[in-house]
Amino acid sequence: MKRLATALLFASLAASASAAPGLPAGKWWKRPRVAAEINLTSEQAREIESIFARSRPKLIDLKADLEKKQGALQDSLEDPNADRRAIGAQVEAVENARAELQKARILMVLDMRHVLKPQQWGRLVQMQQEFRRERRERFGRFPERRRPPADRRR
């Protein structure tokens, strides 16, 4: 049961790790290379920083709420006398908290997107895709490349 609880917790944390779809992690608008690549103006950077600053408190609260609910679920799963109905309700609460956090993140990104010109947004998304591809290649995220050929596994 403890393994199941740990596995569920890690799965839920991994799912929530993907911060905002289509954007580099962190304050990308403050990275000189990114800003130069998309021709970000100082006014746009200020507006995006303002959007982030307004969104941050809510994101922090929603993330904390999600983590509390995940912790409570994990504790319940470790209880050998866990009630199926109660666990089901806690899973639903975790998923609702995750959905609220993701919604807030996406709405923040949408507000940021409205500050950018379409070509700036397109280049930003393209850069994120390139970064992910490079990271996968660098860290060997292609399992088929790491496995020995079938005839050598025996």
Mean pLDDT: 83
Shape: elongated
Beta-strand percentage?
A: under 5%
Helix tally equals 6
Q: Using only CA atoms, what is the Rg?
A: 20 Å
Fraction of residues in helices? Answer: over 70%
Number of strands: 0
- Which stretches are low in confidence, meaning pLDDT under 50 for 5 or more residues running? 3-19
**Helices and strands, in N-to-C order?**
HHHHHH
Could you say how many structural domains there are in total?
A: 1
Instruction: Outline the biggest β-sheet.
Output: none
Return the CATH class: Mainly Alpha
Please name the CATH architecture. Answer: Up-down Bundle
CATH-defined topology: Four Helix Bundle (Hemerythrin (Met), subunit A)
Terminal Cα span: 32 Å
Structural class: mainly alpha
The gist of it:
By secondary structure, this protein is an all-alpha fold.
Characterization of the model:
The structure is a single chain. Helices cover 76% and strands 0% of the residues. It has 154 residues and is mainly α. Helix 1 runs antiparallel to helix 3 (42-78) and helix 3 (42-78) runs antiparallel to helix 4 (84-115). It is elongated, with a radius of gyration of 20 Å.
Strand and helix map with partners:
Blueprint: H1 2-17, H2 32-38, H3 42-78, H4 84-115, H5 118-138, H6 143-146
Question: Which descriptors apply to this entry?
Answer:
154 residues, mainly alpha, Four Helix Bundle (Hemerythrin (Met), subunit A), 6 helices, elongated
